[in-house]
Amino acid sequence: MRHLLRRVGFYLVALWAAVTFNFIIPRLMPGDPAEAYIAKLQGQHVTRQEMDSIRKLFGVNPNVPLWRQYFDYLNSLLHGNLGIATSQFPTSVIDVLRQSLPWTIALVGVALILSFLIGTVVGILVAWRRGSWYDTAVPPILTFLSAVPYFWMALALVYVFGIGLNWFPPNGGYDVFNVTPGWNSDFILSIVQHAILPVITLVIGSLAGWVLTMRNTMITTLSEDYVMMAQAKGLPERRVMFNYAARNAILPSITSFSISLGLVVSGSLLTEIVFNYPGIGYALYQAVQADDYALVEGCFLVIAVAVLIANFLSELVYTFLDPRVRREGS
Amino acid sequence: MTSQTLLEIKSLSVDYEAASGTVHAVNDVSLTLERGHVLGLAGESGSGKSTLAYAITRLLNPPAIITNGEVLYYRRKNADDTAPIDILELSRSDLRAFRWSELAIVFQSAMNALNPVMNLEVQITDVIKAHNPNMGAGARKERALELLRLVGIAPDRLRSFPHELSGGMRQRAIIAIALALSPEIIIMDEPTTALDVVVQRDILSEILDLRNQFGFSIIFITHDLSLLLELADKIAIMYAGRIVEMATREEIYRQPRHPYTRGLLNSFPTLRGPRRRMTGIPGSPPDLRSVPPGCAFHPRCPYAFDACPKIVPALLHIPTGKATPDALVACHLYDPSLNPDGAESVLDSRPDDHREASQPPQVELSASSDAGGEQ
Amino acid sequence: MQVTNLTDQNIDSSSILSSAKGRRRGILSVLTSNPKIAVGVGTVVFFVLVAIAAPLLTPYDPNATVVNGSLPPSAAHIFGTTGLGQDMFAQIVYGARVTLLIGFTAAIGSTMLQVFFGLTSGYFSGVIGDTLNLIINVFLVLPGLPLTIVLASLASANAATNSNDTVIALVLLFTSWSYGARVLRAQTLSLKERDFVAAARTTGESTLHIIFAEILPNEIALVAATFVGTFVYAVGAEVALEFLGLGNTSQASWGEILYWAEANSALIIGKWWQFVPAGLCIAFLCAGLAFINFGIDELANPRLRVERSRRGRLLSRKSKAVVQ
After folding, report:
1. What is the DSSP letter of B296?
2. How far is A238 from chain C (nearest CA, A)?
3. Is B26 touching C (CB cutoff 8 A)?
4. Are B95 and C323 in contact (CB < 8 Å)?
5. Given its phi and psi angles, is residue B31 left (phi above 0), alpha (psi -120 to 50 degrees) or beta?
6. Quick check: C309 contacting A, CB < 8 Å?
7. Is B284 exposed, middle or buried (0-12, 13-18, 19+ CB in 10 A)?
8. In chain A, what residues touch C140 (CB-CB under 8 Å)?
9. Interatomic CA distance for residues B217 and B4, integer angstroms
10. Neighbouring-strand partners of residue B66
11. CB count in 10 Å sphere of residue C212
12. Which class does domain B1-102+183-239 fall in?
């Protein structure tokens, strides 16, 4: 229990760090992104209130001391005020984020689950049949596949399947022209259709990591004494492989899950851009193109929070799976 | 082979194939194990004793390969059914059935041999379930509790995880697991090496009690010859993958024949008796990738003569008189064709190495025993 | 992508140098003994040579417009031409310089940070160690690429820092050091308990000496592996930034080639040669680096090595040990 509280504390610190980054960076940059941002808004109809809150976010007013600016900033954040998206005026940043987030979560979630399951199982099998032809062939192929940049893979898939063969739609989240959003089967089918290529891209890109981690830890685990004892006991092969070997080998995979998550998130950003998939990554891309700093920062914050939550969840899972951790306070 | 024979290992050889060459980890080893007896297997690290033990139930993984030999097991029950089965020829499913129900292993490090993510109950009952699928969950749990009682672990520890147990408890736990299916043979690979001497003594006496109670045979592997002198009925000494001497413990104690055995016995002091200068064995065991030619021990042997680097000694039978079986020694000193003077004259010329004739220590290791001290 | 499985549990620096023949060997024999390392090093060296020899390999100036529009590969232009009429092959070979240089600079700088933070936070217990550890962990958990994008994007607001290669390298450095630092920290934690450290302390050596002259040499394999891993990350992130338009769009680099290809909608109109060469080069370079790391993994963790018997995989009739 104490262990858990410490971890919660850590994540709160990390959250604070992310938030503070967003605060400090624009103020540290040479030149002034804030001024540029404000300048863009000059021609628009912005209420006094909105201008004020923007000033708070970017600290354009030099008369206000820094610590005061910081508290104003935090205050704004807590009220859900992240500024106005100049690239999509007059939509507020928070609204843009609210629309984009579910798409990304769905995409990344599905891809992660798939690549974890497939990758882990393949890793176990490849390690069990060590020295066979597919242990020699599979890892190098996967290594190469994972070295291909995500978006290049996405582009290749778009080119081959989307445009060339026309099997799957090459962009968008759903068919905006023919389908109306809502809980109807047309819409859902359209979503699935549009999601297939992006999901495949992410899965192929991240598969190698899971397979290779699992394979290497399995190989190390298979030489442990308790696996030999399980074999000496005359237990069925499947039980030895899963309950004795894999069950222990998977623990480092879960630890490295947090790193994989970071990579998948980056990969999904680029994938969304290539596919024009309406998630956070695409929003970030458009924000960057349009120099919409408020939206850029907003996207970062949302991504950071999501990653922190996912990491925390994976730690919970690890605690559940490894009895040694539960007992100790460390 | 008599009707008392339980296990007969014939000319077993195990090689490790490595890119740098072939290592003969076990080289033409033959042994017999009688029912209810304790066979001690002694030797330094790298002598091949553990490899031999795992080879018996084919637990070795590539790059280890069994290149020759038979391991004959004489089934229990039928005294007239003398046809043995060769463990090395068993099919995979027969082997799986054989394992643990006939032959169990107690590993050296209980911490490493227990699955860290499973509690004790599961680790005991899953082997029962695998071999007796008809036994219900309640009966299995009963059996698990009974086993814990036998080895002296409190029943409330049934659902503990390995890291929650002390070192001694863990070792008792794997002994309990070994007993689960009432096997005929238990191989114990240095079961007490990792424990302090007090706990060591307790566990060894418990092992003997259990043996007396259930009548299984033990192959006891250790580097500590003194332990075997108290524990074993017969002792085999291994060096560089071969057996160099095999005899009853009385013979080993009273008249060690192979120079290596003599060196081992001289390597620890006695509690009583006159003070002697300690002599170890100079040098170190050979790298098995480049074993010395002829007798592997000759570079370290104080009695080596010209035949030793040239000819690999075979195991010679030395009659011990009486009703005790022959002693076996692989040493040219005992080959009349090579050493006409006889071994005694050579060995007697070094009075330091001559052991005082006295009684070997008693068998019982219970607290009341004073034995012959730490021999 | 997973580029190394080295953790503090399975690393053994000394076994790298004494692999195979059981004796210490020089760097060259280490590099060639393991096929994975050999392939990886060969690939990287190939690209480095291409970058250095760029003027010898092509007569074209990568930025000069030589034809009108984008032409498919031909005898005159092996990789075709870009949307702006520049020779693609020239862009690739000159672009190799930029890509490799930025990646290498970022990797070197990042590795220095990793070594510093990793070793000091591992060696010092108490407040110093804990604080440094906290810093490492916070950086570790914040998502790298989004942070990189934010930083690069904000940097582009100012003319001085806009699309500046050095700035890109710095940004990459800032976001990549934490992973390696954590790995090195874990290794240092276990090494500092060893006897040789206690001996050094007893003989009165300074802390600086202990950390950098005693402990660091034992972690060389790990440092090498994290350097290679950082290099891979740097190349990938650099290409991503350029693809998003945050790099220097007027200079040729592999990422810029992709940026312009996307800007010219090359894919939609079927001009595949604007994408394929650059993408493949990036893939091969990163794969080569990843192979080096896998090779280092195998050298350091002997259990991962597949022993090849001199007689091949012979299993005679009597070999019954293969039960599984």
Report:
1. T
2. 11
3. no
4. yes
5. beta
6. no
7. exposed
8. 258
9. 11
10. B14
11. 15
12. alpha beta
- The pair of structure tokens assigned to A212 is 């290779």
Q: What is the CATH classification number for the domain harbouring C146? A: 1.10.3720.10
From the list C20, C309, C316, the residue facing B63 with the nearest CB is C309
| C51 belongs to a structural domain | yes
CB contact under 8 A, B116 and A324: yes
- Which residues from chain B sit within 8 angstroms of residue A234, using beta carbons? 95-101, 127, 130-131
Q: Are B54 and B60 in contact (CB under 8 A)?
A: yes
Chain A neighbors of C304, CB-CB under 8 A: 216, 219-220
Q: Is the ipTM of this complex over 0.90?
A: no
Q: Which sign does the torsion angle of CA C195, C196, C197, C200 carry?
A: positive
Residues in Cβ contact with A141 at an 8 Å cutoff, skipping those fewer than 6 apart: none
pTM above 0.80, yes or no: no
- The parent domain of residue C237 ranges over 6-304
Token pair in block for residue B190: 């240095």
Nearest alpha-carbon partner for A111 in A269, A239, A229: A269
- Domain residue limits, chain B: 1-102+183-239, 117-181, 258-269+278-347
Q: Do C282 and A33 touch (CB under 8 A)?
A: no
**Predicted confidence pLDDT, tens digits, chain A (330 residues):** 777 788 888 888 888 888 888 777 777 665 566 666 766 666 666 666 666 666 666 665 666 777 777 887 787 777 777 777 766 667 778 888 888 888 888 888 888 889 888 988 888 888 877 767 777 777 778 777 777 777 777 777 777 777 666 666 666 666 666 666 666 777 777 788 788 888 888 888 788 778 878 888 888 888 889 999 999 999 999 999 889 988 888 888 777 776 677 778 878 888 888 788 888 888 888 887 777 778 888 888 888 888 888 888 888 888 888 887 765 433
CA distance A177 to chain C (A): 20
CA distances from residue C295 to B318, C17, C224 in whole angstroms, order as listed: 55, 13, 11
d(CA B74, CA B89): 14
Pair of tokens at residue A268: 């999904």
Binary contact (A228, B54; C-beta < 8 A): yes
Neighbours of chain B (3+ CB pairs under 8 A): A, C
Establish if C245 belongs to a structural domain. Answer: yes
Residues B208, B220: Cα–Cα separation, whole Å: 12
H or E, element range at B248: strand B242-248
Q: Considering only CB atoms, which chain A residues are within 8 Å of C232? A: 147
Overall domain count for chain C: 1
d(CA C157, CA A39): 12
